[in-house]
Amino acid sequence: MSSSFGTLFKVTTFGESHCPGVGAIVDGVPPRMALTAEDIQVQLDRRRPGQNKLGTDRNEADQVVILSGVEFGKTLGSPIGLMVKNKDQRPGDYGTMSQIPRPSHADYTYRAKYGTHASSGGGRASARETIARVAAGAIAEKFLFEEYGVEIVSWVSSVGHVDAPQVDMEQISRELVDGSDVRCPDAAAAKLMTDEILAVREAKDSVGGVLSCVCRNVPAGWGEPAFDRLEALMAHAMLSLPASKGFEIGSGFEGARQRGSVHNDPYVMKNGRLGTVSNRSGGVQGGISNGEPVYFRVAFKPTATIGHEQATVDYDGNPVTLAAKGRHDPCVVPRAVPIVESMAALVLADLALIQRMRG
What we know:
Number of domains: 1
Structural class: alpha+beta
CATH architecture: 4-Layer Sandwich
Strand order of the largest sheet: 1-2-3-7-4
Largest sheet: 5 strands, antiparallel
Strand content: 15-25%
Radius of gyration: 21 Å
CATH superfamily: Chorismate synthase AroC
CATH class: Alpha Beta
Distance between the termini: 29 Å
Helix content: 25-40%
Number of helices: 8
Shape: globular
């Protein structure tokens, strides 16, 4: 099913950008785990719109309600139902665009597939559907941390042509990341990124960027050979995100320029276990985690819906000039940080349960 993700730790999401609400059903959460709405709300607050001047003007509290699967603050082992209401809806902003497929948006492709599409806000193609992913991912993250000590941190490593210096992946924390509105831990780069986003916003344009993510304390042995390799599932998760256009793990494309004698990660003993001196593999070898931090990057394109005038055609092929209305992020990457973390958590939680089955 196109709205479901995972095998044992399985998530099914629902809702459109301007319908009454967005939500998820999370199946496979182990019983007797402490869980409250506050545990989930932390990540939703980091994702929600209207946080600062760098994002959309849409202002939503995005308060989650747990509908099922939890009693007296503990999970029951049954499906957990989650719901977030849409309150700041403005479907009228999209009236003039209903007959014009927005360039690089999913209006045309949804209509080609289903013969119809949501009349406002992009429907399921809107990044608003990621609320459900973040809510479900917060549960997965809690499970991973409590059972295995896994820590997942994402940050903005580039916006447009502005690149941040490499960070210490053992020391990077969400506190450091959230120290700036743009969610870049390097102060100098964060200032340049902020200036770039404000400039494109003023020009009614948009800009893309890259997020980095590290998953620490992932035990060796997670991931399946061949088709369900850890990095393949992580790529699936990240490339399922709205506006994502590229994924690389470890050395990524840069590794293709190196020789094996440079790229290989020699083994050493670390605290009584095998580890590697370097981590160009990104914590994964043969599709299975090796105990080193799992490290990857995700590229996001510029936001498709912009106020800048564009020459295009309507569904009948008539030439039109489109200056899109609505409230949209001039750059998606600052608010995508918790979304990437949540999808990483969903992948790892599923692989953890699969590995448990082996005893």
